[in-house]
Design goal:
The complex is a heterotetramer, with 2 copies of chain A and 2 copies of chain B.
Chain A: E1 6-7, H1 18-24, H2 26-29, H3 41-61, E2 69-72, H4 75-89, E3 94-98, H5 103-115, E4 119-123, H6 133-139, E5 144-148, H7 162-171, E6 175-179, H8 191-194, E7 198-202, E8 213-217, H9 243-281, E9 285-288, E10 298-303, H10 308-317, E11 320-321, H11 337-341, H12 346-349, E12 352-356, H13 363-383
Parallel strand pairs in A: 1-11, 3-4, 3-5, 5-6, 6-7
Antiparallel strand pairs in A: 2-8, 7-8, 9-10, 10-12
Chain B: H1 6-13, E1 26-32, E2 37-46, E3 49-58, H2 61-74, H3 79-83, H4 87-93, H5 102-124
Antiparallel strand pairs in B: 1-2, 2-3
Helix pairs in contact in B: 1-2, 2-4, 2-5, 4-5
The chains are: A alpha/beta, B alpha+beta.
The structure holds pyridoxal-5'-phosphate (PLP) (2 copies) and FE2/S2 (inorganic) cluster (2 copies).
Chain lengths: 389, 125, 389, 125
C-alpha cells in the first residue's frame, strides 16, 4: 500500500485551492467588517471585495450584468429558492423537472406537491440520461410556472441540451431554471448561450469554499426573496454577507475560467484511460451516462456481482476515495434514483462506482486505480453468491 | 472516528469462512440482490452440531462482517444453539454496528437459521 | 489623529478570533472531505469535526442533546425557517412578535401577512424596549401558532424576559422562538433556563465565521425543513456541510463560554465609563434602552442637533467605527423602527449612535472616544440649524 | 473605494461658508428634522448678485457637502443664475453622489431658491 491518498470524489466536493485560500485569508480577521456598514472604511473594503468577487463570477458565466448574480449559502438554497418562490407565490401551480435532478430540486417539489397543491411533471430520461425535448414541449400547460432541468447530472455526468429545452419553455412563456453545479468550472457555462432564466451553482464544486453558492437571475426576471430581512444582495437575499467565502468563490471562478480550456481535454483523456484500463482488466462492468455529451471529469461504472459500499470500503484501505450510488451508502433500500431512472435494474445499480476528477488528478492516480480496483473487485466477487467467476 | 468498529473492519477485510462447504447438509439463502444484499450459508452438521459453516455474501461492509462473525460464533455449536443465535449477539460480538446497518445485520442470523431449517427439512423427509 | 483603528461595531459583526481561525484552517484544503461521504476516511474526519463542533455549541447553550442543534447559514435563515415553517405549513395562522425584532423576523412575517393570509400581532414595547407579559397573554388566541420575541435587541441592548414570556406561551400551548443573536456569547444563554422551543444564533456575532449560524430546536418539537434535498443535519437542513465554518462556530462557542464570566462585567464597566465620559462632556445627549436589563457590551445614545451618518463619517476619519439608527445610513426616510418603537421622536432618533464592544475593546479605546466624540459633535452642531449652542 | 468622492469628502470635512450671514436679505429654510435633514440658507444680495451665502445643515455627509458646494457655486452669481442652479449641477460639481443620496442633494438648491424667493418677496412688499 502506498501512502499518497487518491481523491476521486470531486463531484461531491473539491479541495479548496490554495490560491483561493490565500485570497480569502485577509478577510477573516484583518478586514472583517460588515459589508453593509458603508460608513466606515472597513465596511467599504468588505463591500468592494464582495463586488469584485461578484464580477469574477459574472465573468465566468458571461452574465451581462453583475447584478444578475445573487449570493446564497449553497446551490441547495438556490434550488429551493427558485422552486418555492415561483410555485408558492405565483398563480401558476405546475412545475416540470426531470427524474434525474438532485434531491435539492426533487424534494422541495415533492413537499409542495404534498402540502401546497402544486402539480409536478417529472420527465423520464433515456438510458443515457437524456430528456426528450418533445416530451417537455408536450408537458407544458397554461398552468406551468417553471421548468427546471439540470445542466449535467452529478452521478452519471450526462450534459443535457439546456439551450434547446430552455427555448421550448420560453416559446410557451415559461421560466427556465438549470442546476449547473456539475458544469460550472468544468465546461464553459455561459448564461446567454444556455438561455436559462435562473442558474444555481455551489462554490465548493470548483475548488471554492463550502457554504457559498449563487443564483443567477436574468435581468428583468422577478423572483420573490426566499430569505428575508436585510438589504443585502440588493434585497434579494438577507443575512450578513459572508465576505471571506464570497471572495473565495470569486477567485475560484477566475481560476476555473483560466483552467477550463486545458483541463477539460486533459481530464476527458484521463477518464477514458481509466475506463479502458478497468474494462480491459475486469469482466462484466458497464459504463453509465452519455458517451459523448458528458462532463469531462466523471466516470460512472457498474460492476456486476459486488455492492458499491463494500468496494468503497476496500478502496478506502488503499487511500482511494470514490463514491457509489448503492443504497447501502445511503442507508435506504433503493439505489440512486438516477441509476434507476436510466433503466438500470436495482441489482446492477447497487454495484455502481463513481470516479470524479479535478485538475489535481494525475495520470499516476489513474494508473494506480487500474492496478488496485480489479483486485478489490475480484476479492469481493469471490465472496459473492451472485458471481460465478 | 471510524464508521465501523475495529472488529467489523477486521472481519470485513479478512472475512472468515468464505465460500461454500462441500456437499452441504443445509443451505440458507436470504436477502435479495434487488435490495443490494444477498447471502448464501452452507453448513455441515455432525452429531447435531455445526461442524462447518461457510458463507457467500453480496452486500456492504456490515453485511460481510456480520456473515463472517456469525460463522465464527456458530462454529461447533449445537443446532439449537445455532437457532437461538440472534443478530444482536452478532452485532455485539462485532463491537456494535451503525444504526442504519441494523437492517443488513439481520441477514447473517437469518441465513444460519434458514440453513439449519433446510437441514431439518431434509432430515424430516 | 492616531493610527490605531477602534472597532466599536461588534453588534454588527466581530473579528474572527485567531484561535478560531487556527481551528478552521486544516479543514480548508487538508481535510476538505464531504462529511456525508462516510465511506472514506476524509469524509469521516469531516463528520467527526462537525459533530464535535456541534457539541461545543450545545455546551454553550446548555442543550440536553447535541441533536437539538441544527446548523444553518445564518440567524437570518434560522429566523425565516421558524416563521415560514410554522405558519405556512400548519393549520394555525397567527403569529405574535414584538415591534423591536430584527428585520429577519419582521419581514418574513410581513410577507406572509401580505401574500399568505397570515395574521400577525406586533406587540409594542415601552420606552426601555420591554414587552408587556400581560399584553402577550391577552394576544394569544386559539389560532396562535408561534410567539417570537428576541432575547436582546441589537440596537438598544435591552434584554427581554424570555423565560416569563415563554411560560405564558406554553401555558396556552403555543410554541416560542427567540432570536438570541445578541446574547449568545455575551451573557449566559441556557436554553433550558430560557424555556424557548427554538433559538436562533449567528456565529459571526461571537467571533466565529460569517455565513454560519444555528437553530436550536427543542427535542420533540416538530419543524418542517425549510431548505430540502439532502440528508445533512439529520434531514433538517440540506446542503453540503460547511465544515471549516462549523468547526469555527464550535471553537468560538467554546471560547465565548470561557470568557463570559470575566468579560461581561469588564465590558459593562467600559460601557459605563464611556457613557459617563460622554455625558460629562456633551450636553443634551440621552441613553437608550433598559439601564439594568441589557447586554453588557452596548451603549446607544441620541445626540441632539446632529444626524447619525455625519457623526459616523467624522469618526471614520479618526478610524473609529460605530453605527447609527439614523435613516440616512439606510437610504430610507424613517429612522430605525426600534428607536421609533421605544417612543423616540424621529428627529431624536436621527441622532442615534451605537457603540458595541467585545473582549478586544480596551479602556484606552473608550478614553479616546471620550476625547474625540465631543469635538466631532461640537463641529457638527455648529453647522446645525437646530442647535443653538 | 469610498462611499463619497474625494470632493464630497473634502466639503464634508471642511465645509465652506458655514453659519448665517448678518442681517440677511433672504432666508431659505428647507427640509424637516423629522426626516433627518434640515437646512437654513442665508444670503446677502448686492446689485442683484449673491454677494454672500452661508448655510447651516443638519443631515448626512452628502447634505453637508452639497450645502457647502452650493454656496461656492452660487457665490457672486446673479439671482437669475442662482434660481437656475440645479441639484444636478451641485452633484456634478461634487464628482457625483451615491444614488440613495440624491434625495438630500435636492435640499441645497431648494434652500438657495427659497432664500432668493424670500429676498424677492421682501422686495415686492
Ligand atoms: C447537481 C447538484 N445540485 C445540487 C447540489 C447541492 O450542492 P450543495 O450541497 O453545495 O448545496 C449538488 C451537490 O451536492 C449537485 O451535484
Ligand atoms: C438580533 C439579530 N437577529 C438577526 C440578525 C441576523 O444575523 P445574520 O445577518 O448573521 O443572519 C442580527 C444581526 O444582523 C441580529 O442582531
Ligand atoms: S447490505 Fe445494504 S446496508 Fe448492508
Ligand atoms: S440628510 Fe438624510 S440622506 Fe442625506
Amino acid at each position: 500500500m502506498s501512502d499518497k491518498p487518491i481523491y476521486m470524489d470531486n463531484a461531491a466536493t473539491t479541495r479548496l485551492d490554495p490560491e483561493v485560500f490565500a485570497a480569502m485569508e485577509p478577510f477573516f480577521n484583518k478586514h472583517f467588517g460588515n459589508a453593509a456598514s458603508k460608513y466606515y472604511q472597513e465596511g467599504r473594503t468588505a463591500h468592494q471585495a464582495m463586488e469584485s468577487a461578484r464580477g469574477q463570477l459574472a465573468g465566468l458565466l458571461g452574465a451581462d450584468d453583475e447584478k444578475e448574480i445573487t449570493i446564497t449559502s449553497c446551490a441547495t438554497e438556490s434550488n429551493n429558492w427558485v422552486i418555492n418562490s415561483l410555485l408558492l407565490n405565483g398563480t401558476k401551480k405546475h412545475v416540470i423537472t426531470s427524474a434525474i435532478e438532485h434531491h435539492a430540486i426533487l424534494e422541495p417539489i415533492e413537499f409542495l406537491e404534498k402540502h401546497h397543491g402544486i402539480k409536478a411533471t417529472i420527465l423520464p430520461v433515456d438510458e443515457r440520461g437524456m430528456v426528450s425535448p418533445q416530451l417537455l414541449k408536450d408537458s407544458i400547460t397554461d398552468e406551468t410556472a417553471l421548468v427546471s432541468i439540470m445542466h449535467a447530472n452529478n452521478e452519471i455526468g450526462t450534459v443535457l441540451p439546456i439551450r434547446e429545452l430552455a427555448d421550448i419553455a420560453h416559446e410557451k412563456g415559461v421560466l427556465f431554471h438549470t442546476d449547473a453545479c456539475q458544469t460550472v468550472g468544468k465546461i464553459p457555462v455561459k448564461v446567454n448561450e444556455l438561455g436559462a432564466d435562473f442558474l444555481s451553482l455551489s462554490a465548493h464544486k470548483f475548488h471554492g469554499p463550502k457554504g457559498t453558492g449563487a443564483l443567477y437571475i436574468r435581468k428583468g426576471t422577478r423572483l420573490e426573496p426566499f430569505i428575508r430581512g436585510g438589504g443585502q444582495e440588493r434585497g434579494r437575499r438577507a443575512g450578513t454577507s459572508n465576505i471571506p467565502s464570497i471572495v473565495g468563490m470569486g477567485k475560484a471562478a477566475e481560476l476555473a475560467g483560466k483552467r477550463i480550456e486545458s483541463e477539460a481535454p486533459r481530464e476527458r483523456e484521463l477518464v477514458e484511460k481509466l475506463w479502458q484500463g478497468l474494462n480491459a482488466k475486469m469482466p462484466k462492468i458497464r459504463r453509465n451516462g452519455d458517451p459523448e455529451k458528458r462532463i469531462p471529469n466523471l466516470l460512472n461504472i457498474c460492476v456486476a456481482g459486488v455492492e458499491g459500499e463494500a468496494v468503497l470500503g476496500y478502496l478506502d484501505m488503499y487511500g482511494i476515495m470514490v463514491s457509489s450510488g448503492s443504497a447501502c451508502t445511503s442507508g435506504s433500500l433503493d439505489p440512486s434514483h438516477v441509476l434507476l431512472a436510466i433503466g438500470l435494474p436495482a441489482e446492477v445499480a447497487h454495484g455502481s462506482i463513481r470516479f470524479s476528477m479535478s485538475h489535481e488528478t494525475e495520470a499516476s492516480d489513474v494508473e494506480r486505480i487500474i492496478e488496485i480496483m480489479p483486485d478489490v473487485v475480484e476479492r469481493l466477487r469471490q465472496m459473492s453468491p451472485t458471481w460465478n467467476g | 472516528m471510524d464508521l465501523y468498529s475495529d472488529i467489523v473492519m477486521d472481519h470485513f477485510k479478512n472475512p472468515r469462512n468464505v465460500g461454500a462447504v462441500e456437499k452441504p447438509d443445509g443451505v440458507g439463502e436470504v436477502g435479495n440482490p434487488t435490495c443490494g444484499d444477498m447471502m448464501t450459508i452452507t453448513i455441515k452438521v455432525k452429531d447435531e452440531h455445526l461442524s462447518e459453516i461457510k458463507f457467500k455474501t453480496l452486500g456492504c461492509g456490515a453485511a460481510i462482517a456480520t456473515s463472517s462473525m456469525m460463522t465464527e460464533l456458530a462454529q461447533g455449536k449445537s443446532i439449537e444453539e445455532g437457532m437461538s443465535l440472534t443478530r444482536d449477539m452478532v452485532a455485539e460480538a462485532l463491537g456494535g454496528l451503525p444504526p442504519e446497518k441494523m437492517h443488513c445485520s439481520n441477514l447473517a442470523a437469518d441465513g444460519l437459521h434458514a440453513a439449519i431449517k433446510d437441514y431439518q427439512e431434509k432430515l424430516g423427509k
